[in-house]
Write a structure and sequence with these properties.
One of its GO terms (molecular function) is hydrolase activity. The chain is an alpha/beta fold. The protein contains 7 helices and 12 strands. It has a 6-stranded mixed sheet, covered by helices on one side. A 4-stranded mixed sheet has the order 1-2-3-4. A two-stranded antiparallel ribbon has the order 9-10. Helix 1 packs parallel to helix 3. The chain binds 2-oxoglutaric acid (AKG).
């Protein structure tokens, strides 16, 4: 993120990067890239309706590239209540909006997102034809119960977690560790898509990573440079991992209840 770049120019650049990925099954962008995850002072002025300028740019880019696109997130203004949300947009290859996800865990304790944004309530999965996706955003990565809910979702649980983020460099080690932990404990792929550069004076971790259900890193970006990462995922690997090492079956859902 170049702090001097306008949201319109970012949208144009991101759309062009997406168009370059024609042929991919899924393209993922990071959290709040049009405004900057830590640009709290701009949230109010840069808030968009769901079908605002980022939607328009990403809908066209997904359609032109013919890809499923997780377009990262925007500051969305709810048209009825006026409440702002950190909302992810996922597009189908024909450019139609497949789904949205409002970030459930807002970051900042009693500042930033926590006071400026409303809280999402619904875990969201996406029926991508190759594997069901489970959506989470940045700080959500610290809450394993959300990922379990996504694994348990009906009609099919998540097999690939998509986690756009604007994670600060200060806690880069947590980002890498937690992304791998979510992959290992849920035996699912994790696509951890972070930002490099600086958001409103906050240096970003970079280190986007594609992690397999065994916790192996298939591809990882460096700390500080904008990078396009790609990897081949094998959805059958999720079943193979879950069958050969069936820890998910050993979950005890009702703690404190004796064995029947
Ligand atoms: O949990 C963290 O350390 C970073 C989270 C964050 O920056 C966010 O959710 O925007």
């Amino acid at each position: 993120m170049d702090p001097d770049e306008s949201p319109d120019s970012r949208r144009e650049r991101a759309a062009s990067l997406v168009r370059d990925q024609a042929g991919a099954d899924l393209v993922v962008l990071p959290e709040l890239w049009p405004v900057g995850a830590f640009a709290f002072d701009s949230f109010e002025t840069e808030a968009e309706p769901l079908r605002g300028p980022t939607y328009e740019a990403m809908h066209a880019a997904a359609r032109d590239a013919g890809v499923w696109l997780h377009a990262g997130s925007i500051v969305e203004r709810d048209p009825v209540s006026g409440t702002l949300y950190n909302t992810s947009l996922v597009f189908q290859p024909d450019g139609e909006l497949a789904t949205t996800y409002r970030k459930i865990h807002r970051f900042g304790f009693d500042r930033g997102e926590a006071v400026l944004l409303g809280r999402g309530t619904e875990p969201v999965t996406v029926p991508h034809p190759k594997a069901t996706l489970g959506l989470a955003t940045c700080y959500d990565l610290r809450f394993p119960e959300l990922f379990r809910a996504l694994v348990d979702a009906e009609p099919e649980g998540a097999r690939v977690f998509v986690v756009p983020a604007g994670w600060p460099a200060k806690r880069a080690a947590h980002w890498s560790l937690l992304a791998r932990a979510r992959a290992v404990e849920n035996q699912a792929y994790v696509l951890a898509c972070g930002t490099a550069g600086t958001h409103a004076g906050v240096p970003q971790a970079g280190r986007s990573a594609i992690i397999d259900p065994w916790g192996e890193i298939l591809a990882e970006a460096p700390d500080a440079e904008e990078t396009v990462l790609d990897a081949d995922l094998d959805p059958a690997q999720v079943d193979k991992t879950r069958e050969s090492f069936p820890v998910l079956k050993d979950r005890v859902r009702e703690l404190g209840v004796p064995e029947a």
